Each structure stands twice: as C-alpha cells, then as structure tokens.
Amino acid sequence: MVIFGLPERGRGRELRHHVVPFRSEPPDQFESRPFLLGSRVKNLRTILIPDVLSALKDGARLIDTANAYCNEKAVGRAMKKSGLLREEIFLETKLWPTFYTDADAVDKTLARLDTDYIDLLLIHQPAGDYVAGYRLMEKAYKEGKVRAIGLSNFNEEQIKEILSICEVKPTILQTEVHPYAQQKELKAFLAENGMVIQAWYPLGHADKGLLEEPLFTRLAAKYGKSNVQIILRWHIQAGNVVIPGSKNPAHIHDNFDVFDFALTDAEMQEITTLNKDKRYYEVTEDKLAAFATMFPPVEDQK
C-alpha cells in the first residue's frame, strides 16, 4: 500500500489537510503539519513508481508505505524521480513485528527508502514485542532519523500501555474508520492524549451497502459529487486524516476534488446516525501470532 496526501492550502481559506501533530523539535515544542487526504494503493512486491509519480503529479504530498508492503525501494526512487524536494514530501512508513527487535530495523528502512529521515514512523501491528519496537522508534526519533512516531491497529488498552511506558508520545493512530464505524469514543480518547486518528478503510472496504446509502446518493445529487466524494468530505469535516484506496489516477484525482463544497451541520448529524460499529478488519489472537512470525521479503523487492 502507498498512501498519498496533499499539504497545500485548498480553495479559499480552507486547509486541504487536517492538522496531524508531529514532532520536529523536542517533545515540549509540539507543532503541527497540515495533512488530510490520501490514496491507498496495495501492490505488494510490485514496482509502484508510476502510481507514486501519478499521485505526486496530481498534488499529493503525503506518501505512506510499510516494511510489509515490500515497495519501499520503489517509493524512494519515485520520490527522487518526481523532481520534488525531499522536504516537500511527508513520508510515512511502518515497522513490521518481526523487525521490532532488530537494532538496525530503522536504518535498513531508511536505506530501502533512500532517504535520510522519515517524517512519521508507526508500529504496524500490536504483535510480537511491540514495546521493543516502540523503544526502537523512540531511539530513532532522538537521533533525528524520524520526526514523529505513532501506532497502527492498536486498541485503547494497548495505546494506554504505550503511553504508560513511553518517553516520546505517539502522535497518531492509523486504524479503520468509516461511516459504519465512526470510532467516536476512541477519537475522544486520542484527543485527550494529544493524538489524532488516521482512517484506513475510509470507504468501508468498498462495501456496496455503505457506498450506496440513500443518504449519500441524495447528498451527491445536491452537491454534484459522487457518493465517494460525499463520504470523503464527511471524513474531512469530522477531523479524520483519511486515506482512501486506489491506484487508478482518475480515482485519485477525484478523491482530491472535495474542497469546493461543505456539508451542513444537519447533514453531518445525519451521517452520524449511520454508525453501526461495523468493522471489516478484525484482529484475532491467531492473526497477531502469525504476524509475529511472518518475515516479509523486504530484501527481494526491486
């Protein structure tokens, strides 16, 4: 997967991105960078240079990948081929559980990406010795190799565990969020602890029932948009960092065309009523155990 986001300002006074906390200074000097919308591309062990270049050309500036996606080398090449300065791109990646105890895991990730620093590094799964993995990220942060750290797929109790032992607080949680699983309680907990939510599966894993909800169809007709664009606009106004999945350049372009309208408060409230606490990705003990012993072929990628 590769996720793309835009850091520029949108039409009028609106920022094109929700503010994602990050630390480029010591923890007591907390600042913000604007990021909001991304595009998720899943393509393991495949050259993704055209996908990344297409997104960057369309204005994307946030790239999210991971050790497990086995495309970090291609991402690094695409960033250089884009002609953009490194500081114009916000690079996010994730450590895989079987690398949490490897002292050189961050350095090897940097080498694959062919970059001197990572803007945001996440623990990918709460599997294996994730505390050791978090310590590894803290060390990289203190050494200036990583500018912010966070978590992916952690539940509230697991986040509390990290908060109880950490020296550098996580800034973001990447997890499943969409109109059928709005995660209100989790978002409130994150806000209390200075964290924000980054939504993957923001379209409910392309569930036809969700995408074709009559409410979204009605709003799409009103604003001259697609149902998908209505859902993405809801995410933005709900304060979610949203990363819809696509490797289709036309779809990526359309995903960014959501800044020339705004849903009313009443419409936002209507969408709130769609929540079912329905998840499409379920974490099981067996799945986590498998993650803890799986070694992605990171060195086989081209």
Q: Quick gist of this model?
A:
By secondary structure, this protein is an alpha/beta fold. The protein has helices at 49-57, 72-81, 105-113, 130-142, 156-165, 184-192, 208-211, 214-223, 227-237, 249-256, 265-272, 285-291, and strands spanning 2-5, 19-22, 31-34, 40-41, 62-64, 90-95, 120-123, 149-152, 172-176, 196-200, 241-242.
Task: Give a count of the beta strands, DSSP E runs of length 2 or more.
Answer: 11
Instruction: Please count the helical segments.
Output: 12
Task: Report the major sheet.
Answer: 9 strands, mixed
- The low-confidence parts are 1-36, 39-47
Topology:
Blueprint: E1 2-5, E2 19-22, E3 31-34, E4 40-41, H1 49-57, E5 62-64, H2 72-81, E6 90-95, H3 105-113, E7 120-123, H4 130-142, E8 149-152, H5 156-165, E9 172-176, H6 184-192, E10 196-200, H7 208-211, H8 214-223, H9 227-237, E11 241-242, H10 249-256, H11 265-272, H12 285-291
Parallel strand pairs: 5-6, 6-7, 7-8, 8-9, 9-10, 10-11
Antiparallel strand pairs: 1-4, 1-5, 2-3
